[in-house]
Design a protein that fits this description.
The protein contains four helices and six strands. It is α+β, with helices and mostly antiparallel strands and about 160 residues long.
Length: about 160
């Protein structure tokens, strides 16, 4: 995994945008250290208050108190969607756990969410999303500026 000056993962082609995942030696995407990839069914998504997450709307992350996640495991036992990461949740180094939507199954494991079990991973996700949003806004502004210039008749354009 390559990192930028701040220690966040970044794209190998020299781009400065941090990535919300790691890339192994074979170029395959992997969860960041401190992140667990998991499949969460729709009932659990709703119960945890994550039903409003939507990649198209730019809402990729939600926060759920660790105790609520552990209560689900306690109530449902081994059939809980969160049971496979029970020990990682107990060992998490912060209380309000960040979950990130993985609609596109970027790891190819069939899972639809990632859970940050370390504060550092949660912060890296937030930084990557903020950088991506900033880049998208800059691109949109540049495209709008180009469209405005193209809308002006050639005789009226500044040289």
């Amino acid at each position: 995994m390559q990192t930028n000056a701040a220690g966040s993962p970044q794209q190998a082609e020299g781009a400065s945008l941090p990535l919300p995942y790691a890339v192994d030696a074979n170029g395959k995407k992997q969860p960041l250290p401190g992140a667990k990839s998991i499949f969460i069914r729709s009932g659990t998504v709703e119960a945890m208050g994550l039903a409003g997450l939507n990649a198209k709307a730019g809402q990729l992350m939600g926060v759920v108190p660790r105790e609520k996640l552990l209560a689900d495991i306690q109530f449902q036992g081994v059939i809980s969607d969160l049971h496979p990461i029970k020990d990682a949740l107990k060992a998490a180094d912060y209380e309000d756990i960040v979950l990130r939507l993985n609609e596109d199954d970027i790891y190819g494991d069939g899972n639809n969410f990632e859970v940050a079990t370390t504060q550092a991973t949660a912060e890296a996700w937030k930084a990557a999303d903020a950088a991506a949003a900033g880049a998208a806004a800059a691109t949109a502004a540049a495209q709008q500026g180009d469209a405005e210039i193209a809308a002006v008749p050639r005789s009226k354009r500044k040289r």
